[in-house]
Amino acid sequence: MGKQVLSGNIFPPDERLPDLNKVVPYVIVGDETFRLHKHGLKPYCKITARGEKSKVIFNYRLPHAHRVMENAFGVLSQIFRVFYSPIAVTPEKCELLVIAACCLHNILRNGYLEHHQQPHYLYDSSIDPPASMSVGPYTKF
């Protein structure tokens, strides 16, 4: 996958930003360890960024974007344990798994099933649920 990222084969074509006449590539948020690449964002060197306000702001916002992405994936992996270990599927199938997990997560968060008369618990009837199981938005399956 790293070779595909470096070659640019994994990314869709560059697109125009909404309401602007500027075409930009799709990118991956990285850190100092990533090498400089058209499809990779990494912070400016602290010495280089010191003199320019725009570079200082970029260096401030990039780790925030990285944290948001890590937190979102952390939430998904807490709910759907399949993301805890490597998945032996093609990148296309993996993309579909992530999209399906996001959709299911949104359904659970919005309480769709509670408002549509669906059964609250779907578990193997031969196995008793733990006595200490607390009822929360993600334990209703």
Largest sheet: 2 strands, antiparallel
> How would you classify the helix and strand content by structural class?
mainly alpha
The count of β-strands is 4
Strand order of the largest sheet: 1-2
Helix content: 40-55%
Pfam family, one: DDE_Tnp_4
Domain DDE Tnp4: 26-106
Organism: Ladona fulva (Scarce chaser dragonfly)
Keywords: Metal-binding
Written overview of the protein:
This protein has 141 residues and is mainly alpha-helical. The protein has helices spanning 2-7, 46-49, 53-79, 91-110, 112-115, and strands spanning 15-16, 23-24, 28-29, 40-41. The longest helix is centred in the middle third of the chain and has 27 residues, at 53-79. 43% of the residues lie in helices and 6% in strands. It contains five helices and four strands, in the order αββββαααα. Strand 1 (15-16) and strand 2 (23-24) form a beta hairpin. The protein has a domain at 2-83. The strands form two sheets. The chain has a two-stranded antiparallel sheet with strand order 1-2. A two-stranded parallel sheet has the order 3-4. Residues 26-106 form the DDE Tnp4 domain.
